Amino acid sequence: MEQYREMYERAANEPEAFWSELARNELSWFEPFRKTLEWNPPVAKWFSDGKLNACYNCVDRHVEDGRADKPALIWEGEPGDARVITYSELRKLVSRFANVIKALGYKRGDRAIIYMPMVPELPIALLACARLGVIHSVVFGGFSAEALKTRIEDLDATLVITADGGWRRGKEVRLKDAVDAALRDCPNVRNVIVHRRTGSQIEMQNGRDLWWHEQEQQLGAQGDTCPPEQLDSEHPLFVLYTSGTTGKPKGILHTTAGYLLGTMMSTKWVFDLQENDVYWCTADVGWITGHSYIVYGPLAAGASVVMYEGAPDYPAFDRFWAIVEKLKVTIFYTSPTAIRALVRQGDKWPDSHDLSSLRVLGSVGEPINPAAWEWYYRVIGKERCPIVDTWWQTETGGIMISPLPGATPLKPGSATLPLPGVVPEIVDTKGNTLRDNREGYLIIRKPWPSMVRTIWGDPKRFEEQYWSKVPGAYFTGDAARRDEDGYYWVLGRVDDVMNVSGHRLSTMEVESSLVHHPAVAEAAVVGKPHEITGQAVCAFVTLKKGEWDTGALSQELRQWVGKEIGAFARPEEIRFTDALPKTRSGKIMRRLLREIVTSHAVTGDVTTLEDMNVLASLSTQQDEE
Ligand code: 7RM
User: Fold this and answer.
1) Ligand 1 atom closest to Cα of 491?
2) What is the pLDDT of residue 336?
3) In this structure, which CATH number among 3.40.630.30, 3.30.300.30, 3.40.50.2020, 2.130.10.10 belongs to the domain 497-624?
């Protein structure tokens, strides 16, 4: 802890010296940089006159530094197939695929959309693009053809990399069909490169569509090497689309050196990464967590990275724990949603596996409620493994607030303290700094290397969205509180904070209380306009298996919350439902629920919604009332 304090102080007092020293020592450069930071808010340039290559940093340098035979990717397919790829094999596979792309005429600055299942060819495709300076944009394989099309158009991509399909709960997700549908309206795409995964029947359009393996075969042996391009530090590495408050998704742009440094250092610090760790992040590469903590961070750090193709409950609810046991996973990083889903199935699933290899547990994506935290700590970590609750965003590129395992004393539900070089603050609506224990907006005062550089094609929206609320500071859109120990408690999105009778109330607080009740599986809470109190609490609740008298339970739950938080927090209304509307990454879409309780119409972007039927049945329920 003392070491952390020292480092934090140093980074706060001399940020440029702190980051430039790390960048020099931890990254491999073709040409060294002299300028550390040019900051003209909101435009940041880090290490701008240096040259490097992200793929070289993630792959080649480890082969050259004695990790040639170390496993880089340890892959588990959903059907039970498996592959281990060493760093030297990865260099060859990435170089060959980079040569395929290059031979087709794609070059630095071009844009490629990647739409693939969780197979090794997915990180290989990202790294091959990075090797050539081709800007990639991964679209999560669960997105529809329509969502795919919007992204291809916004990015003006000329190349699509996909697969015939992937496996999910024993069924094929037919990716190539979706690409075909999307491309009917995208004349600028010249080629589709298709990896064969499922072997099912698909259409191949002559001249446009090419099989990955056939293109590779044509290369011959000289295809094994491909010199990495020497790129500027600020060369765009990727664009990742994320939904904002409007209907149109935002293309978050990350560049090369700063992003790589931020993700690599945070991987080492937050997970206490050691040479022989077996590291597993269960996210999909289609989300920022997968980009930063499956691909770029851990590979830049030379780690052995586990990757799993399928669903956590296939063929049974113990799939995660079976993989932990089989591969002797030491670091395990997942989401509260996944944890809650598994809690619901009972302890017998983890209890039937040897989880003694685990050393550090991580959580990401939303605040982790105390009940889930306790279960994760006790049943998975056997009270031996620290839980790192990591707060960050697509826009921040890497982890910003998190405990350091073994050093930071934990408080369940708090992401604890900022990493070195991160300067958060809690402010009111006017941008004034608030005292401890006051809820306010979470902002970041100082620029950091892995920060978002712009919104693709929309610098104006970038400025308005993130930099105009508190001039010169980054606005996260989250509400948070800092306690008397300096610990941060992130309460959720600002638009998820309710105000009931003048009391600030987090939707999460009420949800957390509701899921404490033995009958409740999941809960989502939104504020509903109310004549007297301003807003009233409205809760959507799913129940655990069993027979429930919902009338009586409704009363009981209201009192339950009243007792746990206070009478003002009691939900005025409780709606029981079979499922909650969620994004494909598992976040509850409160915005949609809010629209259901305020009006009848649902507008805006719903392309990230997991199951549209959930939405339809929730609105109908209201229509009937
Ligand atoms: C990594 C990721 C970002 C939003 C963010 C928060 C919420 C994420 C935590 C969290 C509380 C956490 N990127 N969030 N992590 N809230 N504690 N540890 O999820 O761009 O998809 O979402 O997620 O609201 O603003 S994201």
Assistant:
1) 11
2) 84
3) 3.30.300.30
